[in-house]
């Protein structure tokens, strides 16, 4: 069956209703039962059900549109979220952009709102057909779709783009990878080609990719964006302008679920970076957000906010006075004591409390087992940490 016919079959009202009715049905059960439709096999239906469920939070625009076709789960896991795709579109301008790793097309949907002529390329035929079809359903008219090996295409065509975008595939023989050299295409191998065919380049890398390694491996870095959503780092975005030398301009974005972000910036920190003072725990306790933690500049920010650190390798900070609008979690410290698990168990058995373990050998899972407590709740925390006074448990309330 041709892709186009398959997609049309999936858009029959009865099929759409079947997918809606089974969003919460167990997948193994569905597979066992088989497809109720003669022309559509059960795997395609299951892909749509899994896809719609995944899209609900990550891709609300796709979820709202019932004509969207979803690829298998593995392809969907690699897409950007709408928040991070929109983020990228805020930093580009010009006329021509080529995406060398189009995938499900989430980034291109947003980038095409800022660029009049966008070229989407994808080597996987099935994924290419799906993205092309969906661009049509989403009324994205200025996207030219090419099913090619983008590196070969770039090498064969004598054209210089305003922007090249690349979000290399982080799967290698079904294993997850995060180094640029292991991703596909290998950006490091093709830097010269990318440089000759673009004025600017945007590279998305894994949150696991080491920032210092990036500054060593890549050239022309104008800005690095560390992008977190709800305090979890999702992407590192390397913005390259081939005319510049590497610049230590790092922007740390933390989005909430409403697409609103806080931003901290680090510029040329070498001259300002000094050690942070250590102190015993005072009235307030702080943990920086995930973007600041990923950047490695937590001590730099601690000095900026006049905070002291609990111990050299314990990334928790303290002060006598409260810091308003702190970029991360802030707590009022209610009590500080040595760690006696038996006593704590008496107090917390069966109760809800949030657990943290900082610079300690014991994990929060192991602590939970020892206390026999439930984890969660709005603001009560038990923070186990190595401090200047030894290992302590801090009872704290999140502000
Ligand atoms: C991480 S995904 C991209 C996801 C995309 N940014 C999105 O938001 O949907 C990477 C994609 O690049 C494709 N790819 C890898 N190497 C390629 C190449 N040389 N030419 C074209 N596509 C390639 C893979 O098939 C995969 O679909």
How would you explain this protein's 3D organization?
Strands 3-2-1-4-7-9-8-10-11 form a 9-stranded mixed beta sheet. An 8-stranded mixed beta sheet has the order 13-14-12-15-19-18-16-17. It has 16 helices and 19 strands. A hairpin with a 5-residue loop joins strand 10 (249-255) and strand 11. It is α/β, with parallel strands linked by helices and 399 residues long. The mean pLDDT is 94. The radius of gyration is 25 Å and the shape is globular. S-adenosylmethionine is lined by residues 78-80, 101, 103-107, 121-124, 127, 149-151, 167, 169, 184-185.
Write the layout of secondary structure elements.
Layout: H1 3-10, H2 13-21, H3 27-33, H4 42-58, H5 60-64, H6 73-77, H7 82-89, E1 96-99, H8 106-111, E2 117-121, H9 125-137, E3 143-146, H10 150-156, E4 161-166, E5 171-172, E6 175-176, H11 191-197, E7 198-205, H12 211-217, E8 221-229, E9 232-241, E10 249-255, E11 261-267, E12 284-288, H13 290-295, H14 298-304, E13 308-311, E14 314-319, E15 328-338, H15 341-348, E16 352-358, H16 364-371, E17 374-375, E18 380-387, E19 390-398
Parallel strand pairs: 1-2, 1-4, 2-3, 4-7, 8-10, 16-17, 16-18
Antiparallel strand pairs: 5-6, 7-9, 8-9, 10-11, 12-14, 12-15, 13-14, 15-19, 18-19
S-adenosylmethionine (SAM) binds at residues 78-80, 101, 103-107, 121-124, 127, 149-151, 167, 169, 184-185.
């Amino acid at each position: 069956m041709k892709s186009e016919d398959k997609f049309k079959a999936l858009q029959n009202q009865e099929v759409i209703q079947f997918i809606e009715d089974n969003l919460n049905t167990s997948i193994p059960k569905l597979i066992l039962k088989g497809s109720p439709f003669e022309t559509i096999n059960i795997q395609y239906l299951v892909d749509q059900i899994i896809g719609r469920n995944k899209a609900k939070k990550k891709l609300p625009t796709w979820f709202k549109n019932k004509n969207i076709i979803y690829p298998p789960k593995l392809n969907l896991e690699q897409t950007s979220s709408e928040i991070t795709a929109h983020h990228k579109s805020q930093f580009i301008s010009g006329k021509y952009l080529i995406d060398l790793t189009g995938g499900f097309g989430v980034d291109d949907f947003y980038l095409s709102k800022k660029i009049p002529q966008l070229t989407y390329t994808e080597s996987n035929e099935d994924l290419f057909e799906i993205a092309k079809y969906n661009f049509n359903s989403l009324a994205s008219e200025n996207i030219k779709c090419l099913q090619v090996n983008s590196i070969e295409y770039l090498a064969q065509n004598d054209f210089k783009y305003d922007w090249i975008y690349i979000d290399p595939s982080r799967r290698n023989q079904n294993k997850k990878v995060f180094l640029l050299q292991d991703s596909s295409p290998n950006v490091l191998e093709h830097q010269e080609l990318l440089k000759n065919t673009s004025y600017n380049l945007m590279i998305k890398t894994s949150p696991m990719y080491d920032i210092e390694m990036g500054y060593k491996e890549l050239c022309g870095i104008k800005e690095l964006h560390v992008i977190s959503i709800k305090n979890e780092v999702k992407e590192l975005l390397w913005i390259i302008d081939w005319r510049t030398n590497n610049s230590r301009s790092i922007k740390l974005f933390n989005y909430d679920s409403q697409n609103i972000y806080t931003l901290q910036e680090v510029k040329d920190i070498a001259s300002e970076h000094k050690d942070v003072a250590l102190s015993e725990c005072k009235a307030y306790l702080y943990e920086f957000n995930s973007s600041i933690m990923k950047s490695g500049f937590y001590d730099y920010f601690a000095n900026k906010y006049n905070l002291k650190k609990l111990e050299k390798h314990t990334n928790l900070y303290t002060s006598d006075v409260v810091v308003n609008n702190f970029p991360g979690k802030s707590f009022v410290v209610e009590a500080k004591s040595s760690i006696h698990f038996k006593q704590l168990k008496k107090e917390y058995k069966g109760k809800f409390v949030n657990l943290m373990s900082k610079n300690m050998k014991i994990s929060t899972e192991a602590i939970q087992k020892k206390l026999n407590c439930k984890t969660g709740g709005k603001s009560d925390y038990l923070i186990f940490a190595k401090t200047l006074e030894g290992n302590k448990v801090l009872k704290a309330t999140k502000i």
